[in-house]
Design a protein that fits this description.
This protein is mostly beta strands. About 0% of the residues lie in helices and about 45% in strands.
Length: about 210
């Protein structure tokens, strides 16, 4: 099991993946009162129930969620286990039990994990009907889904669903750098361009040449 490195006594959001117990498909729309969370510090023999409130649970899309554990819950060095289950308030279908693991270290031994990713730069040029460059036009992407990314120290990361954008320069040229193999929605409003694609596993590609 991959684990996340946490600084002792620091409130931290820890990941949860919710999937259909029968199909494995991502489960969206879950709220804090539809899950039960328990945890166990390295010095504890049994799991403790975490009383979840709305501010401690958030959805990141595509079946990815996070639970906020407090400084008191993360105050003991060593392995920290947590379990998340759907409860009776969760409408069918049921979700698979999620078991997560973190490793809590003090300030003397804690070194934040690093994430190393491969990226691809999507490029292109925008022009008007007279062949003149379109200057300062927005080119953007929003992540729809992505693989987990293994880091070091050790650390494991996920890709956020935030909007990433750039603009064309004085020649109408744009370059948009994205993580390889993520699925993104590309939007260029000025030319009414929109498409969903998987970012190629190459260093650079011409956007408009992609199949």
């Amino acid at each position: 099991m991959a684990y996340i490195q946490v600084l002792q006594g620091t409130p931290t959001w820890l990941p949860v993946i919710a999937s259909n117990v029968n199909t494995g498909d991502p489960r969206t729309g879950i709220t804090f009162d539809q899950v039960d969370v328990s945890y166990k510090k390295s010095t504890q023999a049994v799991f403790q129930v975490k009383t979840l409130i709305s501010a401690d649970f958030r959805e990141n899309g595509n079946g990815f969620y996070e639970v906020l554990f407090s400084s008191a819950e993360l105050n003991t060095k060593g392995t920290f286990l947590y379990v998340v289950n759907g409860n009776g308030a969760l409408p069918a279908p049921r979700v698979r039990q999620y078991v997560g693991q973190a490793f809590i270290e003090d300030s003397a031994s804690y070194t934040p994990g690093t994430i190393s990713v491969s990226t691809c730069v999507l490029t292109g040029n925008l022009i008007d009907v007279q062949g003149n460059p379109l200057i300062g036009e927005a080119v953007g992407a929003r992540v729809l889904s992505a693989p987990a990314i293994q880091g070091t120290s050790p650390n494991i990361g996920g890709v956020g669903t935030n909007y990433i954008g750039t603009q064309t320069d004085s020649g109408g040229f744009f370059a948009l750098e994205l993580i390889q193999r993520v699925v993104v929605d590309i939007v260029i409003p000025s030319i009414n361009y929109r498409r969903t694609l998987t970012v190629p596993d190459t260093d650079t590609e011409l956007l408009f040449n992609l199949p």
